[in-house]
Amino acid sequence: MISGNGYVLPVDKPCGPSSHDVVDRARRVWGERRVGHCGTLDPFASGLLVLCVGKVTRLAEYLGSVDKSYLATARLGVETESHDTEGTVTASSEDWRRLAPSRVEAALAELTGELMQVPPRFSAKKIGGERAYRRARRGERVELAPVRVRVTRLEMASWDPPELTLRIDCSTGTYVRALARDLGRILSVGAHLTALRRIRSGAVDVSGAVGFDFLDDAEAVHRARMNPLAALAHLPRVEAGAAEERELGFGRGVEVEALDDAEPGVVCVSRSGELVAVAEGERTESGRWRLRPRKVFPG
Prior knowledge:
The chain contains eight helices and 19 strands. It is globular, with a radius of gyration of 22 Å. By secondary structure, it is α+β, with helices and mostly antiparallel strands. It has helices spanning 19-30, 60-64, 101-110, 132-137, 176-186, 218-224, 228-231, 242-249, and strands spanning 6-13, 35-37, 46-54, 68-76, 78-80, 89-92, 113-117, 126-127, 130-131, 147-160, 163-170, 191-201, 204-205, 210-211, 237-239, 254-256, 265-271, 274-283, 289-296. The protein is 21% helix and 38% strand.
């Protein structure tokens, strides 16, 4: 069992288990039902899966909607229906043999920045209340609308034709499988993803994660667990006094001094290094900030 409001736990997921498998194992091992994850990692992929434990599960929406970083390997010359190794081959070409690294880098540049990306047919996107992958598995026609995403880095880490390894920084909701697909189409050779590893999610890095096989090791889990404030480092922070903490605890709004260089929106409220609340901040006519609590964590 846990004490206090709970904590954030980065887990290094191996290829094979689903994100839900990791959550189920944690619940069984710890005897704690209040465990959730902050952003699905496909069974095909490895790397960082961020777990919320205890009352901190209420923060999943803020911990999941952050930029992510990946290491990915794409295989040029073969396109599959799922854009990874699990799908059937839909097209192949040997023209990758004529590609120079400079041409590949130019194609990567085309996929950097603000993009309108079509999600894979085999994805968890919903169509009429049903997951797209369920329709795709039945052989039904699946058409998904493009989604705006942001890719801030898409660099070639290594080039061993026909495979290349990529370093990727992107917004939440970006499908790396779709980046591999689109890269292959820009190069007119086809491509699919052969490996994917998430290495960062917001302020959480896989280097501090506990291994999936060590979830029953209390010492290893204790070393890896994070204070929620550290995991929410991407949000502006306000330090509350005792009076503000009390009012927020009752679900009431409070006023604080204006935050430097911060736009109105979601902020963390802390006191003595502990999370007090996540609140919506807005400017008042006097130039101060009005904080309206969204999630409160009484001490």
